[in-house]
Write a structure and sequence with these properties.
Elements: E1 9-13, E2 16-22, E3 28-33, H1 50-64, E4 71-79, E5 82-88
Antiparallel strand pairs: 1-2, 2-3, 3-5, 4-5
């Protein structure tokens, strides 16, 4: 995990805040819920799983940083509620 930038970007999704860390060289992101984040009532009929929330947060981060054409291609838990997602960008 020491290959990620220490500066986190906060991304909000459905009233919850998540931290996103960008890898220094690879096309990957590390995503986790913020500590002490309040759980807002979900706006979905079926609430999202933690995996779905973190994947959506990673995709939103890419869109917010001008890489909306990039797509998450794989990912999963690396420790507890900390997930790593790999993405691919066309071109």
């Amino acid at each position: 995990m020491n290959t990620y930038h220490f500066q986190a970007h906060t991304v909000e999704l459905e009233g919850e805040k998540f931290k996103v860390y960008r890898h220094k060289t690879d096309n990957s992101l590390m995503v986790s819920p913020t500590l002490g984040a309040t759980q807002a009532a979900p706006k979905f009929v079926d609430p999202l799983t933690l995996d779905q929330k973190l994947r959506s947060t990673a995709q939103r981060y890419l869109a917010n940083t001008g890489r909306g054409s990039c797509r998450i291609i794989k990912g999963g838990a690396i420790q507890g509620a900390v997930y790593e997602f790999w993405f691919d960008c066309p071109g």
